[in-house]
Write a structure and sequence with these properties.
The complex is a heterodimer.
Chain A lengths: L8 E5 L11 H15 L3 E5 L15 E3 L5 H11 L3 E3 L4 H13 L2 H4 L3 E2 L4 H8 L1 H10 L7 E4 L2 H11 L3 E5 L9 E3 L2 H14 L5 E5 L5 E9 L5 E9 L12 E3 L6 H18 L3 E9 L6 E7 L4 H10 L3 H9 L26 E7 L20 E7 L2 H11 L19 H9 L5 H11 L3 H8 L3 H19 L7 H10 L4 H8 L3 H10 L5 E4 L13 E5 L15 E5 L10 H16 L4 E6 L14 E4 L4 H11 L3 E3 L5 H12 L9 H8 L1 H11 L6 E4 L2 H11 L3 E5 L9 E3 L2 H11 L8 E5 L5 E10 L3 E12 L9 E3 L6 H17 L3 E11 L2 E8 L6 H8 L3 H9 L18 E7 L20 E7 L2 H11 L10 E6 L3 H5 L2 H9 L3 E4 L1 H9 L5 E2 L12 H6 L5 E5 L14 H11 L4 E2 L2 H12 L11 H6 L7
Parallel strand pairs in A: 1-2, 1-4, 2-3, 4-5, 18-21, 19-20, 19-22, 20-21, 34-35, 34-37, 35-36, 37-38
Antiparallel strand pairs in A: 6-9, 7-8, 7-9, 10-11, 10-13, 11-12, 12-15, 13-14, 15-16, 17-18, 23-26, 24-25, 24-26, 27-28, 27-30, 28-29, 29-32, 30-31, 32-33
Helix pairs in contact in A: 1-11, 5-6, 7-8, 13-14, 14-16, 16-17, 16-18, 18-19, 20-29, 23-24, 25-26, 30-36
Chain B lengths: L11 E7 L4 E8 L2 E10 L5 H5 L7 E5 L3 E2 L4 E2 L3 E2 L2 E2 L11 E3 L2 E2 L8 E3 L1 H7 L3 E4 L3 H11 L2 E7 L8 H7 L11 H5 L5 E3 L5 E7 L4 H9 L2 E7 L4 H5 L5 E4 L10 H10 L5 E4 L1 H9 L4 E17 L5 E12 L9 E7 L5 E6 L4 E4 L14 H11 L2
Parallel strand pairs in B: 3-4, 4-9, 5-10, 9-12, 15-16, 15-17, 17-18, 18-23
Antiparallel strand pairs in B: 1-2, 1-13, 2-12, 3-13, 6-11, 7-8, 14-16, 19-20, 19-21, 21-22, 22-23
Helix pairs in contact in B: 8-9
The chains are: A alpha/beta, B alpha/beta.
Chain lengths: 1091, 381
């Protein structure tokens, strides 16, 4: 069956901003989907406000709407574009939910838009617990046994029926609170009593408990003719109980026998057939560790994080093929993109193992719980490929970029911990469990015992033991021994880095490198070909391993090659924007005639790790050792380190010292910008102002210096013990506490203190230079004052409240700095503006987070120009002044994931906390800002809503909120406030209803009751900055209010400038958000457009 | 803590030498000693206990492309319908095993010993530490080759001269009567008090085939590969089943003769070697594939319905498509990758055969429905 010929135009829904649980994997799936559609000559329309994605590039998609993925906005786009079909399976749960709502509201029917692929009723079957259960029972697929109960007596009856242990789930509480495992009637009575009390509808669910069962997943494809196959299966290292997104995952499965593998495979197919999925889906299973019993857990009737991972694991382009299936194609009609001759109707055979490890950033969040469990909390992931588990595991640990040199040989491994503590950490997993397993083994706790506590299969534990044994062997090894080279060879096979070996040998990694080179111990390049070498591969999806003795590919010489280092693992502060930069660099290299544009990256969520984006993809570590390995094999023209964010940037200096030719700005100039002292001297020489600062070696020196320049000061220790790496100190006590409790200050670990300018505007510039011509892409103005991390700030292009003279001054400073640093490539400079005086904060000689925002808003692809500059070409043909302003305004807004992080305080500060961002374009600031807020899941209250205001600190501070409160009253809002804030408001003639504090619980009207009863639509809570470091009393009223607001999904604003901006939005509510224009239309209006 | 020096420093030496002189040096496991055979590769990721006991591998040195083998140990001899649940015959059938990494500490509830111990118990040598991907690419480009696998005693050094001399003159197992070695010597009956009885001609049958028939309430009489048509028909069977087996189908002259006679009289189903013999019996031809199909992911496309099935395969010979024109057989399934014959059926009689293994084990169960189809033909008057 060829494709349905009535499909001419298709609407694709994206997933919006990156948030915990919905990350860059949906840029990968959406991009592949658009590619598959375009190939068919189908016109595409995409709705996705995530400006930093590849998919929102008009070159990939016919039309791009940077608008919220909500029924309200999508209807407007449908009305305008009139697509024939809609795809809901490529934008995560956001797109799926939006699609179901569009269907329920009759919008799809009204405009005759057909849902392509999996039908709505199947989506609903998988989304509703009871409907899913029934569907599975009908298909003879065993679901978890469960039943609801409304009394303890009933709960006990249900448990008798199901059999112990059971898990009690509480209906309608937020964040899965109240859940608990009961192993007998006594425990159940207790848990049920508590659960029933916590449930708002007095209902609990008693479910069969499968904790410590194996957790496995299958990725299933199905076409309209019922052809079915499983692309991949995956096994979680962490057993049931930890969310699969927070689990270490291996693929293919390692501990399952043929019978287990194929029983579950067959049942997966039966389940998917019964549900009527068309396209791709993911199905999760619990497998009993001591029998062939299993239970289906859930089905994701769409591309998921796991399906993106499976694509990278196997080389099978799931999203691409899934798209073709939704258009009517059948699996045997499609070809395998890797071999280009065999069919897509097959199941990949792997001849390697992959290990995925999640990356958490929980330590960044004040008060956040570090345990991992049923709720996903990681913000990124890495995938490593090897020929044995040990190799892949150790690679993956290094890829996390958390400072570990591998699974073992880390200095902190020696810190002593009591056995009780280790046992606890092994049993109750946190983000550090993997390393605690190592400690437990080293401590001599038996594999059997660790298995009992953790449920981690002994197969994996024995492999970890192998790594531990090799560490001891390496520590005893004498490199002069005859057998040394065999030991080193085996260590390399087990994934030890040169650095790890060097640590064991008390030498440096280059000594080891030359030792093994002379012993001819070298990694080989292997190809991922989907068929385990049965057919030759046409594509170059590669990895390096010591588990082999021959390179799979022939390395060509005499052609132009450039290696681009990707962004590596995503974490807070480094995300999809750097993948956008990497991919655009590859495209620009190809456009400029480079014969082999080579990508090195290991992030399975990204577009850059799609093997058909570059000429060669090395799915590899971004480390000096590995880049040297690749560099020596490939012998390229040069390496680009400036487009992937911090990780490649940090490698630049050392690579350069090792003789690697870097393209773009020289490593010396990068150092000049990054070394605070050198950069400071340069600024002095250029007569450009900067806040006073100093590097200090002791707490007393720090105090003296702070006294001299005057508080508040920004404190940046180089060694942080816990919590955030930066802090604003408003007085000496705070400074001292922070340095004593949270950091270490010594000769080796200096602290940088700089003057913190209060109430200053923050402004950023993104641009490109070729060494002669300095291009300023845009000047961006932050809405929040300095003190809020630039990644968490709301920013606008063009500036909304910055005088022309100030902008000109900024442009002038920029030009002077850029020329002085002889920049060839991208740059980003951050400024502070107070009383129209411009100060420089820092300069980065690399692509910044805001690069895609600037490029798309201004219609000029800065990365493409930066690539030209790095190739030594001129960009003088671009004539654009930052003062030339477009008719539209672009606003970028952060996306937070506080709801997912139980306990995390949503107060913004100098540490970045947002997980993603969106940007929307509009006719004016409030138009663009309102769309962006909606896109970032901020529910803008209605005009006659109610706002709760609480401002900490002095009366003077409180008075600053008065004009905002007045504006809210004018907009018809009801004002609630805490005691003192209410007094100040009333004095100024603003009627405010006093609510009692949390600590006065029971006294009504109480703020918590109002939040719970949804009587408050917006919380404005501005805490006292100077108290932010109060360690002893974290459970302040403010914290509890903010946290409760997060839990009840009430928007929280902790900053007055943002509150003011919101007022502007509300004032223009009727005219906001009506402009439904595509990015293409905005860009086409720009006379200087270069896209 | 004193580490126990890892096994890698104490292991036995081993080599694999191909007929073209390519030498792989690795570590030995299983039995010490020297064997030779046809070196083939399978891309299956799970199912080594089933594969190693598959009689179709007789005479062959099996390379597994998945790099980590032995992870879940070797299961017990638990019986199901009177047949071992986890094995396809009573002992290991491969001549030797070539893998990249051997799991020394497997863990699985059904495991009773390690792969190393199992091979040792059964006197089969194995080599690990081989770049199996390099070996596979070699076999893919060159075609399957003969080879020698030798595991030396602990401490014994490799004598390269002797080894290389051995490589000059390796006996080709395909020239011998492999089927005879794996076929049952005397008829065996498997009763389930079924209404129907099938005679299964055993060319090296996998137990899962028998199990699939028994599961459907069919009594099975398993007869030697060289049983004559009259011997087969003497059981008054409702159908005849021709099993899989090793080697060149053209060697099975007696079986071919027998099949030619029985297909006229009773419903018939064949698997793998059985499909090739059916084609030969009815006037078709077979040929040797360059490197065969040994995998669990082979796509078999039904030419009439355009449905495609994921199948498990293990064969080195195939039915010549062109030659079918001279027979009463028609093409039923083809391999969607290399377009070779995957299934044939008789134009007018309930006679069919497939090149793959619908009994799975190892591999996917998607085409077990063929046994249902066969069972149905037995019902016909």
């Amino acid at each position: 069956m060829p494709k349905f010929d009535w499909i001419k135009k298709v609407l694709v829904l994206g997933s919006g901003a990156i948030k915990i649980g919905e990350a860059a994997e949906f840029d990968y799936s959406g991009s592949q989907c658009l590619k598959a559609l375009r190939e068919e000559g189908i016109e595409t329309v995409l709705v996705n406000p995530n400006i930093a994605t590849i998919q929102t590039d008009p070159r990939l998609s016919g039309k791009v709407y940077l608008l919220p993925v909500t029924p309200e906005y999508v209807e407007k786009v449908i009305e305008k574009e009139r697509p024939d079909g809609i795809l809901l399976g490529f934008g995560g749960q956001t797109a799926l939910n939006c699609g179901v709502e569009l269907d329920k509201k009759g919008i799809l029917q009204k405009y005759n838009v057909k849902v392509l692929g999996t039908p709505i009723h199947s989506i609903e079957d998988t989304g509703d617990r009871e409907r899913f259960r029934q569907a599975m029972l009908k298909a003879n697929v065993p679901p978890l046994n469960s039943k609801s109960a409304t009394s303890v007596k009933q709960a006990l009856e249900v448990a008798d029926e199901i059999g112990y242990p059971v898990i009690v789930r509480v209906a309608y509480t937020l964040g899965g609170k109240g859940a608990g495992v009961a192993r007998n009637a006594e425990e159940l009575s207790e848990t049920a009593t508590r659960g029933l009390a916590q449930s708002r509808i007095c209902q609990i669910l008693i479910e069969e408990y499968v904790g410590h069962w194996k957790e496995v997943e299958y990725e299933v494809m199905r076409d309209y003719a019922d052809n079915c196959l499983t692309v991949c299966n995956m096994e979680n290292f962490d057993p049931m109980g930890v969310h699969t997104g927070d689990s270490i995952v291996v693929a293919p499965s390692q501990t399952m026998s043929n019978r287990e593998y194929h029983l579950i495979r067959s049942t997966s197919i039966n389940a998917i057939r019964a549900l009527g999925i068309v396209g791709e889906c993911n199905i999760q299973w619990a497998l009993h560790p001591k029998s062939e019993e299993y239970r289906v857990i859930e089905v994701n009737s769409r591309m998921s994080r796991s399906s993106a991972l499976a694509s990278k694991v196997t080389g099978y382009p799931l999203a691409y093929i899934a798209t073709k299936l939704t258009l009517g194609y059948l699996l045997p009609e499609l070809i395998n993109k890797v071999t280009e001759v065999t069919t897509a109707c097959f199941e990949p055979a792997l001849d390697y193992i992959t290990v995925k490890i999640p990356r958490w950033d929980l330590q960044k969040f004040k008060n956040a719980d570090r345990h991992v469990g049923p709720q996903m909390r990681s913000v990124g992931e890495v995938m490593a490929i090897g020929r044995c588990f040990e190799e892949a595991l150790q690679k993956a640990v290094r890829m996390l970029d958390t400072g570990k040199v591998g699974l073992v040989c880390n200095p902190e491994d020696d810190e002593s911990e009591s056995e009780a503590r280790i046992r606890n950490a092994v049993e109750n997993p946190t983000d550090e469990r993997l390393y605690k397993l190592v400690k437990a083994l080293k401590m001599g706790i038996s594999v059997t015992e660790i298995y009992r506590l953790s449920g981690v299969d002994p197969f994996f534990l024995y492999k970890i033991q192998n790594i531990i044994d090799m560490e001891s062997r390496l520590r005893q090894l004498n490199l002069a021994e005859d057998s040394a080279s065999e030991v080193i060879r085996e260590a390399k096979r087990l994934g030890f880095s040169d650095e790890q070996i060097a640590i064991c040998q008390k030498t440096d990694e280059y000594t080891i490198r030359s030792f093994r080179k002379s012993a001819n111990i070298l990694p080989v390049i292997k190809q991922i070909d989907t068929l385990a070498a049965e057919w030759p591969a046409k594509t170059n999806y590669l990895y390096l391993t010591y588990g082999g003795d021959e390179d799979d590919i022939e390395l060509k010489s005499g052609i132009s090659k450039v290696i681009v280092l990707g962004a590596g693992v995503f974490r807070i502060g480094s995300s999809v924007e750097f993948d956008w930069c990497g991919v655009n660099t590859i495209w620009a290299l190809k456009k400029n005639g480079i014969q082999e544009a080579i990508m090195v990256n290991y992030n399975p969520e990204t577009v850059s790790t799609d093997y058909d984006v570059s000429d060669k993809l090395y799915f590899e570590e971004l480390s000096v050792e590995r880049i040297l390995d690749i560099y020596e094999k490939e012998n390229p023209m040069g390496v680009i380190t400036s487009v992937g964010g911090q990780i490649p940037n940090n490698l630049a200096m050392e690579l350069s010292e090792r003789g690697v030719k870097l393209l773009g700005t020289s490593a010396q100039n990068v150092d000049l910008a990054e070394d605070r002292s050198k950069f400071s001297a340069l600024l002095d020489q250029l007569q450009i102002r900067q806040p006073s600062w100093s590097k200090l070696l002791s707490i007393s020196e720090a105090k003296r210096f702070a006294e001299k320049i005057g508080y508040p000061v920004l404190v940046r220790p180089s060694y942080v013990l816990s919590g955030s790496a930066m802090r604003v100190a408003y007085n000496e006590t705070v400074l001292e506490n922070f340095l004593k409790l949270a950091a270490k200050v010594s000769r080796d670990h200096p602290v940088v203190i700089s003057k913190f300018i209060d109430h200053a505007k923050e402004v950023e510039v993104d641009g490109v230079s070729d060494g002669e011509n300095v291009l300023i892409g845009a000047i961006m103005e932050h809405v929040e004052y300095a003190g809020v991390h630039s990644g968490d700030a709301t920013m606008a292009i063009p500036p909304q409240a910055l005088k022309v003279e100030v902008q000109q001054n900024i442009a002038k400073c920029t030009e002077r700095i850029v020329k002085a640093l002889n920049i060839h490539g991208p740059y980003n400079i951050q400024y502070l503006v107070k009383d129209d005086v411009v100060n420089v904060i820092e300069c980065n000689l690399r692509a910044s987070r805001s690069m895609p925002f600037v490029s798309k808003t201004r219609g000029i692809n800065l990365i493409e120009l930066a690539t030209l500059a790095m190739l030594g070409k001129k960009i003088d043909f671009v004539k654009l002044s930052p003062m030339t302003i477009a008719n539209h305004v672009g606003v970028k807004v952060p996306q937070f994931s506080f709801m997912r992080l139980s306990g995390a305080d949503p107060v913004l500060g100098v540490e970045m906390l947002s997980t993603g961002e969106v940007a929307c374009l509009g006719e004016n600031f409030s138009d663009a800002f309102s769309k962006a807020l909606r896109s970032a899941e901020f529910s803008i209250p209605d005009r006659d809503g109610s706002v709760f205001i609480s401002v900490g600190g002095s009366i003077e501070r409180k008075r600053r909120v008065v004009p905002i409160a007045k504006a809210f009253v004018d907009l018809g809002f009801k004002i609630y406030a805490t005691d003192h804030t209410a007094d100040v408001l009333c004095e100024s003639g603003v009627a405010a209803v006093k609510l009692f504090k949390v600590k006065e619980a029971g006294v009504s009207p109480n703020v918590l009751d109002y939040l719970q009863e949804r009587k408050i639509d917006l919380v404005i809570n501005v805490p006292i900055a100077s108290k932010q470091t109060n360690y002893s009393d974290i459970l302040t009223d403010g914290y509890i209010i903010r946290r409760q607001a997060v839990e009840f999904n009430v928007p929280v604003i902790t900053n007055l400038q943002l509150a003011q901006a919101l007022v502007d939005v509300l004032k223009h509510k009727n005219s906001n958000g009506n402009s439904i224009r595509s990015l293409n239309e905005y860009m086409d209006d720009l006379p200087w457009k270069m896209w | 803590m004193v580490p126990q020096h890892s096994t890698f420093e104490k292991s036995k030496k081993a080599i694999l030498l191909l007929e073209d002189g390519t030498l792989f040096v690795g570590k030995g496991f299983g039995a010490t000693g020297k064997i030779s055979g046809e070196v083939v590769f399978s891309t299956q990721m799970v199912g080594y206990p089933e594969a190693l006991t598959d009689p179709s591998y007789k005479g062959q040195v099996l390379t597994l492309t998945y790099p980590m083998i032995g992870n879940y140990g070797v299961p017990s001899n638990e019986l199901n319908l009177g047949l071992p649940l986890y094995f396809e015959s009573d002992h290991i059938q491969v001549q030797g095993l070539v893998i990249h990494e051997l799991c020394h500490e497997p863990f699985h509830w059904a495991s009773t010993r390690t792969l190393d111990k199992w091979l040792l118990d059964e006197g089969v040598p194995g080599i690990y530490g081989v770049d199996t991907r390099r070996l596979t690419k070699k076999l893919r480009t060159h075609g399957v080759m003969l080879g020698v696998l030798q595991v030396f005693d602990t401490g014994q050094e490799i004598d390269l001269d002797t080894v290389l001399k051995d490589g000059k003159n390796i006996a080709d197992p395909n020239l011998t009567d492999l089927v005879k070695e794996v076929s049952v010597k005397q008829p065996v009956k498997y009763g389930v008090d079924g209404k129907k009885t099938v005679v299964l001609i055993d060319c090296g049958v996998k137990y899962s085939i028998i199990r699939n028939l028994l599961k459907r309430g069919i009594n099975v009489v398993r007869v030697p590969y060289d049983a004559s048509a009259s011997e087969v028909l003497a059981y008054n069977p409702d159908g005849v089943f021709l099993s899989n087996g090793p080697g060149d189908p053209k060697k099975c002259v007696k079986t071919i003769d027998c099949v030619r006679e029985v297909v006229d009289k009773v419903p018939f189903m064949g698997i793998c070697l059985g499909a090739q013999i059916l084609a030969l019996a009815l006037g078709g031809d077979t040929y040797k594939l360059k490197f065969g199909h040994r995998a669990q992911n082979q796509p078999a496309l039904d030419l009439s319905s355009r449905r495609c099935y994921i199948t498990t395969q293990n064969h080195g010979y195939a039915v010549d498509i062109e030659s079918l024109k001279k027979t009463p057989l028609e093409m039923w399934f083809i391999n969607a990758n290399d377009k070779t014959t995957e299934g044939v059926k008789h134009k007018s009689k309930p006679v069919f055969a497939v090149q793959w293994h619908p009994e799975a084990s190892p591999g996917p169960y998607d085409t077990e429905l063929l046994f249902d189809k066969f069972a149905k033909t037995l019902e016909a008057p």
